[in-house]
Each structure stands twice: as structure tokens, then as C-alpha cells.
Design brief:
Layout lengths: L3 H5 L2 H4 L3 H17 L5 H19 L10 H13 L12 H37 L4 E6 L2 E7 H26 L1 E2 L15 H7 L4 E2 L3 H6 L2 H28 L6 E2 L6 E2 L7 E2 L1 H24 L14 H23 L2 E2 L1 H7 L7 H9 L5 H17 L9 H7 L13 H7 L8 H24 L1
Parallel strand pairs: 3-4
Antiparallel strand pairs: 1-2, 5-8, 6-7
């Protein structure tokens, strides 16, 4: 088979681990020297050789392709420093080596993605502040339900993203466990110092079971799950952008660079960026399914199936990072068409709940009030009227409790700002919500800097 080397190899995709693999090897070599398994002179030569390889890679030089990144670096090291380069692999295996590399790499990527989410949140918060007085319909079942502040709607996604960051930070905690020193599967007879290696590589914990350590990919599956749920949240927002841009809604406009025209219909602008993010979600969720399928039914310990774990991991993180960068810029360009959004609140009888609450405040059981207002809405539909167009006399036909003050409950701006409960859509509540999330974002930025 001519392509067997390509079939069995992984260099084409694990090559991106070169830097972390070299850094892990440097740490391992320092530990071998400290434990007097490798003498100081040989250790210094190995570290110098590894450093020169890393420097060349950073300068644009390409490692010659081998079966995998580990063997490619080891072969190049021996070429540069001689046979002593082979001492680097003492007391370890490619099994614990790749498990370590992937954990180091994902710890770095988790921090990057958390910062990207943070940036997107800040744009959403800014847009919420800019549109604090914009009123729009809130929907259930995609039907007009009650008026809400546009800011409140935007902030819903800020809190979704907040949970995404919390999940990633939690994933980081389980990724922050060093498997190096587990060797092939059973540990090693050399008197190694795994805690020292963990200290050098900034791992908080050391794995307790060598069998589990070399075969565990739970952290990778959890990471791709986090990618999948985050992109799912992005698709929900993208779907709203697509709807809001539709002339039937016409609530917003975004910069033309995030849209495209039609090849045949000159009047159209298509929300391509939002649609591509929506499409990429299928790919990222597919990566999660692929990883689960790779891991399903694998016996302990290492199996070559695990070589295929990196492609779905890399694909999911690459695409999510791209989606986060694009959606941040797209939302930064978003402008609400205030009058259109407000005009849309006149549809769907969205003041109906307030009328029911009006009666409830007058000691009418809410379920009975609900039925009264339902009959009022049916009357309006039959007579082609809105709730605002009914006279007090007409309201009184349904209940003598209706007085002139009922009409203040028909103004959508007033209705929105009546929702003063904690977490509600009133301006007062939303401003408090903005203050809370801004304080959280500031604290998280400080925590990242401290780390």
C-alpha cells in the first residue's frame, strides 16, 4: 500500500503540537537531570538542541515529516546533538507524552477562547447600553408575547456566554492534571519526580492511575462539548439576527461586509455571516459525535484509535474561534431601527397580560382575569380592533372593574418599564443587570492577568 505511511501517521495534524511537545520534553529532561537519571552535561545538550529546534520552527523552518510530531522532534534532536538525544525518552512513552501535549495545548486554548468570549460579551454589553431605550416585542413560540427592552434581549446572550466561560474554566480544572510519568501504561521503575515535572509545566495536579492517565480523553470530550454548546448559543443569536433583518421584522441593520447580494435579485442582502456560523455549528457538534464514537468501547489502555482524537478537537476550536471573532465584529456593527421595533409591538395584542394583571390587582383571581382578557382579544379580532382602540365603554362590557387608568397599561414603553422584578425588563432592572455583568467581566479580566 503506497499511502500506508500517510494512513498510519498523524504528523499532518499533530504537527501543531510542536511547541508544546518541545516544552514538555525540556521539562521532562530537567526532571531526569534533577533525579540523576541523566547527567547534567547530557541534559544541557538535550535542552540546547530542543531549544534550537523550537527557535528554528518559530523562524519558519519546517520539521521534516515523520510518523508523528514526537518522533519528528526526537529524530531531529538526535541529528543535532548525537545519540545522547535518545536519552530524552527515558522514563516516558509516546502514550503519556501525547496525553500531556494535548492537555498543555488545551489549557492554552481554553484561556484564549475564554478571552474571545469575554470580548464578545463586552460588545453585547456596549450595544445594550446604547439601546437601553429601544422597545421591541419579546416572543414565545415565535409569536409576539410581551414588550421588552432590546438591551434586555441582548443581555440574555451575555449570560449564556457567561455560563460558557464557567464551563470552560471548569473543564480547565480537569485538564490541569499531568499524565507524564505514566509511561506506556504501568508507570516506570526509574525514580522520577512527577511533582517537579508538574511544577515546570504549570500543572496543578498529577494523575493518580497510570492506566487511566494514558487512555483518558474525557478532558478532550468535555472541551469539544464546551465548543459545541458555545456555538449552539451563537446560532441562537444568529437566527435572531437573520429574522430581525428580514423586511417582515426590519428591526436591525448590520454592515454590508457581513452580508452578500444575490446573483439574480439585485434588491437582496443575505445575512451570510450569521448563516455560516449557523452552518458551522453542525460541523462542531459533529466533532463531538466523532470524538465520542472514537472513545466508545475502547479497552484500557492506549489504542491507536486515540490518534484520531486530535482532528475533531482542533477542528472544533479553530471554527469556534473564527465564529467568535466574526460575530463580535458583526454585532459591533449592528444598529437597531428603533421606530420599526416599537411599531412592531402594536401587533399581537402584547399588552394582554398587563390587562389581566390590572384585573388581578383589583382582587380578581388571575385565572378568571386571564379568561376575561382572552374574550376581549377575541372581540378585538372579530371587530378588527387593537386593545388601544377599544373605548372604556367597550372594556366595561367585560368587567365593571375597568376604569380610565386601564389605558396606561396599554403603552408598550410603560409596560416594559413596569417589569421591575429582579432580572426583569424594566430600564431600572436592566441597568442594574448591566452593572452586575460589567463587574463580573472586570473581575475575570483581572483573574486572567494574575494567572
Amino acid at each position: 500500500m503506497q499511502n500506508f505511511k500517510q494512513f498510519i501517521g498523524s504528523f499532518s495534524f499533530d504537527g501543531r503540537l510542536a511547541e508544546v511537545d518541545i516544552n514538555s520534553s525540556v521539562a521532562h529532561t530537567k526532571m531526569l537531570v534533577k533525579a540523576k537519571i541523566v547527567n547534567t552535561s547530557d541534559g544541557e545538550k538535550i535542552i540546547s538542541g530542543l531549544t534550537s529546534i523550537l527557535r528554528d520552527i518559530e523562524g519558519g523552518w519546517k520539521l521534516p515529516e515523520e510518523e508523528d510530531i514526537h518522533y519528528a522532534i526526537e529524530k531531529e534532536l538526535i541529528k543535532r546533538v548525537g545519540p545522547i538525544g535518545g536519552k530524552m525518552h527515558t522514563a516516558r512513552s509516546r502514550n503519556d507524552q501525547i496525553a500531556t501535549d494535548l492537555r498543555v495545548y488545551l489549557k492554552q486554548e481554553i484561556k484564549i477562547i475564554v478571552n474571545l468570549i469575554n470580548d464578545f460579551q463586552e460588545v453585547l454589553v456596549t450595544k445594550a447600553e446604547e439601546n437601553i431605550d429601544v422597545i421591541m416585542p419579546g416572543f414565545t413560540h415565535l409569536q409576539p408575547a410581551q414588550p421588552v427592552l432590546a438591551a434586555h434581549h441582548l443581555l440574555a446572550y451575555v449570560w449564556m456566554m457567561q455560563r460558557d466561560k464557567e464551563r470552560l474554566n471548569d473543564c480547565y480544572r480537569r485538564t490541569d492534571v499531568l499524565p507524564l510519568g505514566s509511561a506506556a501504561l504501568a508507570g516506570t521503575s526509574f525514580n522520577i519526580d512527577r511533582q517537579y515535572t508538574a511544577q515546570l509545566l504549570n500543572f496543578k495536579d498529577v494523575s493518580e492511575n497510570s492506566l487511566d492517565a494514558v487512555s483518558d480523553r474525557d478532558f478532550a470530550m468535555e472541551f469539544v462539548f464546551c465548543m459545541s454548546l458555545t456555538v449552539l448559543h451563537l446560532t441562537r443569536f444568529c437566527e435572531e439576527i437573520i429574522l430581525w433583518m428580514n423586511p417582515e421584522f426590519d428591526y436591525i441593520k448590520i454592515d454590508d461586509k457581513f452580508t452578500s447580494g444575490s446573483s439574480i435579485m439585485p434588491q437582496k442582502r443575505n445575512p451570510d455571516s450569521a448563516e455560516v456560523i449557523r452552518g458551522k455549528s453542525g460541523r462542531i457538534i459533529g466533532d463531538l459525535v466523532a470524538l465520542f464514537t472514537i472513545m466508545k468501547s475502547l479497552p484500557l489502555t492506549y489504542n491507536r484509535d486515540l490518534q484520531e482524537d486530535k482532528q475533531p478537537v482542533f477542528d472544533s476550536l479553530d471554527n469556534l474561534k473564527l465564529c467568535l471573532e466574526v460575530i463580535k465584529e458583526m454585532v459591533d456593527s449592528l444598529e437597531f431601527i428603533e421606530e420599526r421595533a416599537l411599531k412592531s409591538t402594536e401587533k399581537g395584542f402584547i399588552a394582554a397580560t398587563e390587562i389581566a394583571d390590572y384585573l388581578a390587582r383589583k382582587n380578581v383571581p388571575f385565572r378568571l382575569a386571564h379568561g376575561i382578557v382572552k374574550n376581549i382579544v377575541l372581540y378585538c379580532k372579530k371587530n378588527s380592533k387593537t386593545l388601544n382602540e377599544l373605548s372604556l365603554e367597550e372594556y366595561s362590557k367585560f368587567s365593571r372593574l375597568f376604569k380610565k387608568d386601564v389605558f396606561k397599561y396599554l403603552n408598550t414603553k410603560s409596560i416594559a418599564n413596569m417589569k421591575t422584578s429582579y432580572g426583569g425588563t424594566s430600564k431600572k432592572s436592566v441597568l442594574h443587570q448591566i452593572e452586575n455583568i460589567k463587574n463580573k467581566l472586570k473581575l475575570e479580566v483581572l483573574e486572567v492577568k494574575v494567572k
